[in-house]
Amino acid sequence: MAEHNPEKAIQAECVVKAGVHSTSPADRYVAPEDPLLLERLSWWQDQKLGLMMHWGPYAQLGIVESWALSDEDANWSRKDIDWETDPKKFCRQYRALNQTFNPVRFQPDRWASLARASGFRYLIFTTKHHDGFSMWDTKQSDYKITGPDCPFHTHRYADICRHLFDAFRREGLAIGAYFSKADWHCPDYWVPGKREATWRGPGYDPGADPARWEQFVQFTHNQILELTGQYGRIDILWLDAGWVNAANGQDIRLGQVVDKARQTQPWLICADRTVGGPYENYVTPEQTVPSEPLGIPWESCITLGTAFSFRYEDTYKSLEEIITLLVDVVAKGGNLALNVAPQPDGRLPAGAIFRLEALGRWLQRYGEAIYGTRALAPFRQGPFAFTRKNQVVYIFCLDPASAAKGELAIPLALPVSQVDLVAGPMALPFTQDDASIRVTLPAPSAEDPAPFVRVLRLRLAVEGPPE
Fold first, then answer.
1. For a pLDDT cut of 70, what percent of the chain falls above it?
2. Closest CA to 298 of 288, 308, 306, 307
3. Residue 121 to residues 29, 112, 114, 336: CA-CA distances in angstroms?
4. 79, 88, 269, 271: which has the highest count of C-beta atoms within 10 A?
5. Alpha carbon 97 to chain centroid distance?
């Protein structure tokens, strides 16, 4: 392996810490100039809720995806298992997980129907994580779900991406393809036989071996073009491994391949996360929600359980936590990509299904206050969150004690003509002054799937959308 480059390691550390990516600052955002892409970004901002799924052979062990392969990340990524201490043997053990990955209980139509019923509007699926295992029938590598040494390759759903994407499209959901720009299996990224120590970056200096690096660039382009050219309509190309970028000495000429993909899929939104510039069409805070609206398109990717990958006996967020999270994100103008990790046998965990079905019932009742809305100042204030849609303002009261009261004092100074409970009584009694709107509420309905949240609809008494 080439000598470790401390400068590049520092740059990489600024992007990822313990597997969690930082967020590009808003001042690095470059809005698309193409009217179609601007239109698609506006459409995407209407969707609000995406289903993210991390799935691969690593699910068999219930460990973090990919990261344990990186010696640089060993101190946090290998703590959950008694790994082989010899790095070369360990690497072989991890990579051999494909030989036992056989998710015969995978039913893509069930996943898709559950996603639709749960209120999701788009999918972000890991076609390939950093470990390089492809969940589609790539022609660039045998390290794939349809490879001859993977027992699932004879199954009728063996080309997982194809069947999953088709199933979700049939349910009317948009498709996002997660793709790692790094590939720790590709010999033109991590060079075989030179593994004294590994880090997230390549096993050699691309500038000192441009021919090998060019082979990796072509490999990456070919895989991206397979996904965007042979797997139907792709709405989002969600690119991970932000350390792979030109400023970090790892130029894969991303713009070239994205522009080529857009020749056949001109609507393609690209999220080159943490890199900034014209191919990061929206930014992606990870496991966090910004404290304030960002003023640019953004999406928080947050786990339903404790991790992005499957964990045995994992614990999941409560319905109250999920709704509060979704409302917080939407009130600040963002989307939520809620990650649900499938089991190694191809099923979704029962605990996750229970939570998703409850979320779906809530969104069926209150989705008008979520989908297609935009942020409205003061966004979040005390127990209240605000969204808007043309001449209508929606108020969420997120504090159970306040929601149970017979009267709410909402800190909003807008002229209102009518106040309703969403999915409840219309024309509630209210008064208003220069500082607040006071609304008299009926008792919570026994049919409400989440009585700890009250959702109100305020019809404005002025023309034009509120500022």
1. 95
2. 288
3. 25, 11, 12, 11
4. 271
5. 25
Residue with tokens 């001109």: 266
Q: How many other C-beta atoms are found inside a 10 Å radius of the C-beta of residue 307? A: 19
Distance between CA atoms of 59 and 54, rounded to whole angstroms?
9
Query: Strand locations in 129-252, DSSP E?
Result: 174-180, 236-240
How confident is residue 463, by pLDDT bands cut at 50, 70 and 90? low
Q: Is 307 helix (H, G, I), strand (E, B) or coil?
A: coil
169 contacts 233 by C-beta, under 8 angstroms:
yes
- For residue 58, give the amino acid letter: Y
Instruction: Give the tokens for residue 407.
Output: 């009267």
| Domains defined along the chain, listed by start | 6-369 (3.20.20.80), 374-460 (2.60.40.1180)
The tens digit of pLDDT for each residue in 327-386 reads 999 999 999 999 999 999 999 999 999 999 999 999 999 999 999 999 999 999 999 999
Q: Residue 458: what are its φ and ψ, rounded to 5°?
A: -110, 120
The torsion angles phi and psi of 226, rounded to 5 degrees, stand at -60, -50
Question: Quick check: 110 pLDDT over 70?
Answer: yes
**397: helix, coil or strand?**
strand
Once rounded to an integer, what is the mean pLDDT over residues 1-19? 51
- For the stretch 300-342, pLDDT in tens is 999 999 999 999 999 999 999 999 999 999 999 999 999 999 9
Q: What is the 3-state secondary structure (H, E, C) of 268-287?
A: CEEEECCCCECCECCECCEC
